[in-house]
């Protein structure tokens, strides 16, 4: 269910990321656009930067890993498409075992 984008907080986006990852098979990733579409409705594109920001906040705390080309990436090196995978505190999957992404 979507809400007007002004009503979607960073914490909502973080919960959305965790929720979508929890519904996936172990070790799989999500695209930031999936979170934006789930919470943003018709104006989902407006949420792309905030979703990425939420992903980096979660990565800093170990909840997720941000990936580029299937490999963890540092925030300052991230350009273009990224994926979000479960982090160490989400069962230590194959992505998180490669190291932190912040």
Walk me through what this model shows.
This protein has 102 residues and is an alpha+beta fold. The protein has one domain: Winged helix-like DNA-binding domain superfamily/Winged helix DNA-binding domain (Arc Repressor Mutant, subunit A, Orthogonal Bundle), CATH 1.10.10. The chain is built from three helices and three strands, in the order H-H-H-E-E-E. The chain has helices at 10-22, 32-40, 48-60; strands at residues 64-68, 71-72, 83-86. Strands 2-1-3 form a three-stranded antiparallel beta sheet. A hairpin with a 2-residue loop joins strand 1 and strand 2. Helix 1 (10-22) crosses helix 2, helix 1 crosses helix 3 and helix 2 crosses helix 3 (48-60). The longest helix is centred in the N-terminal third of the chain and has 13 residues, at 10-22. The chain starts with 9 loop residues before the first helix and ends in a 16-residue tail after the last strand.
Walk me through the topology.
Layout: H1 10-22, H2 32-40, H3 48-60, E1 64-68, E2 71-72, E3 83-86
Antiparallel strand pairs: 1-2, 1-3
Helix pairs in contact: 1-2, 1-3, 2-3
Quick summary:
This protein has helices spanning 10-22, 32-40, 48-60, and strands at residues 64-68, 71-72, 83-86. By secondary structure, it is of the alpha+beta class.
């Amino acid at each position: 269910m979507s809400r007007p984008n002004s009503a979607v907080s960073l914490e909502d986006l973080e919960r959305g990321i965790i929720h979508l990852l929890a519904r996936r098979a172990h070790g799989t990733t999500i695209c930031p656009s999936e979170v934006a579409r789930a919470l943003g409705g018709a104006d989902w594109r407006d949420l792309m930067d905030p979703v990425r920001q939420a992903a980096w906040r979660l990565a800093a705390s170990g909840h997720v890993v941000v990936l580029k080309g299937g490999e963890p990436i540092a925030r300052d090196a991230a350009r273009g498409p990224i994926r979000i995978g479960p982090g160490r505190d989400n069962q230590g999957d194959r992505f998180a075992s490669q190291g932190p992404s912040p």
